[in-house]
Amino acid sequence: MTDGGKGKKSNSYDADDIEVLEGLEAVRKRPGMYIGGTGSGGLTHLLWEIIDNGVDEAAGGHARLLQVFLHSDGSYEVTDDGRGIPIEKKEGEITALEVVFTELHAGGKFGNGAYGASGGLHGVGASVVNALATRLEVEVDRGGVTHKLEFQNQIAGHTAKNGRFTPSHALKKDGKIPKSRTGTRVRYWPDIDIFDPEASIDYEEVKNRLGQICFLVPGLKIRLSDKRKGSKRPAEEFVSKGGLADYVDFLSGETQPVTGLVRIAGSGEFTEKIPIDGKLTEVTRECQIDIALRWIHGYENCIVSFVNTIPTPDGGTHVAGFERSLTTALNQAVSAADPRKLRKLKGDAKVQKEDAQEGLVAVVRAVVLEPQFRGQTKRELGTPEVQKIVGTVTRDGLKEWFEGTAKGSKKIHVKAILDKVAEAIVNRISTKQALDNRRKAAQLGNSGLPDKLADCRLHPDSELLIVEGDSAAGPAKRARDSAWQAVLPLRGKVVNAGKGTKRAVLDNAEATALFTAIGAGSGPEFDLASRRYDRLILLADADVDGSHIRCLVLTLIYHYMTPLLEHGHVYAAQPPTHALVLGQDKEFVYSEMDLGDRMSELDKKGRRYRVTRFKGLGEMDDDELFETTLNPETRVLRRITLQDAKKAEKAFAVMMGAPVEPRKDFIIKHSRDYGHALDV
Fold first, then answer.
1. Which of 126, 388, 435, 512 is most buried by a 10 A CB count?
2. Top CATH class, 463-576+622-674
């Protein structure tokens, strides 16, 4: 088929259409298959691949220091004081070092004894980094000499002082060093033509990951330096001596523990068939399990899992084994203890997964040679045999702990756990009954929107303004655009969802009004797609009481409507604190600092002005409220993230929680900063 000689279009499909991608070319053609994508996540994944190699050296007892540099020229560098990548010739004139960076599925982690268990398991990490970089430099300290090899566009060689690159397989000797000094330094420049223009590596993400690693490899010192333009961060250092125990303490934060730390460790063996020399051969694997956990006051759980040194945020077979045996062990312990508060429930008093994990903080780690991950990004363990081993170790360890025969087990701690689990069972059942009653009422026509809700007419792309009481509701109702802005006043104090039981939350009129108005349910039943409003806007006064109710509402949303935060549907409006009247004109300022700056500026110019303070939204007239706070074109909104809500809950727990010491420490620490704001 032709188009008049201007080109050719054919429906043929023959051998010439088959494209063979060899070596690193395949990575560059389909980078998402190897690093998950070409956005920030993929760019960060390259850094993990190099970091994991250094961590593996430390986990094997061969390195004590790992350093990570984020350079100003867009490059990234990782150094370790491990054994150094082998530099002997592997294939003709090609050294093992070059093979590692140019051949897929090449490395020392395929069961040959160099590594017992590692993070970089597929043998593609270093080569993938090189494939997706325009330039890469590697230096190896080994045998009293620093060996150097560079890559430009995946080709090995060396760069002369004049900047000219010469291809070569030979390693360059870059100076003598003490024979005792060993290690590897890798620096690479990602190919900006492959990655998205907005792709970047987030410092906090790297920091958090390195913080995790120090808990997994006790004694390993990790340094992180951000030398990128605009960064003024000092270098940070991470080290842990207590390992997983320290990690559980870190995850628990300042929340009071219910029990002491529970440590569970054990191992098991399994067999699997793997291809060796072209034949499926049965081999025996050992799987080591290390678990640290405790229960804390509260209702949210936190289970963090790892395979070797790799975090598995999507869980996998090791987490499944842990969770199942945890529930089983608690059922056995609760049945044996026969708590009084469960006797009325009779056959319903069974521990379910959510009961067992209420307030649980746990770190689960499986160490196994050549694990099967679901995908190259290694977010989820797929080795099926690990589930049984973890389950057995968890069941036996908890049985001993609940029986009081395990190290660190005390009767008072066992009783505290069982009481907490029993309370969780009672709350779950009573909550279900309350929800069932609500549904029955709805079926009888006794349910509807809250009476105090001033709804909008159009719900697509609408927003719910959450205000303090009737004094703010009146002006907000008058100033809003009733087509797409709804107003819900909350009277009194909203229940503290981080402290109260689920039943207490459901019985709270203000919490129930919010759930009903949004119309998407609450807790595990919350359905984001069913929400009646696209945005929730917290419209509180710019004072202490406003901050208080904002924290309470955020805590409620965080615990019972989490997807709203995860998907960016919650905002805080910023109302003005003062107005400056200059003749016929009026200016609004949004903080005490801005007010002071503007007054100083006007004083220097000799301008006359009058200052009006807004103690609450009710003190503004309708036009002022619309212009400053409700008008999408002029208002100031801040999107509240899941992390913001966690910080709010933490602050609320410190200032309003039962423990006195954290609050006392906070007041002493910050008294000088905020003493001027006290109304005395």
1. 126
2. alpha beta
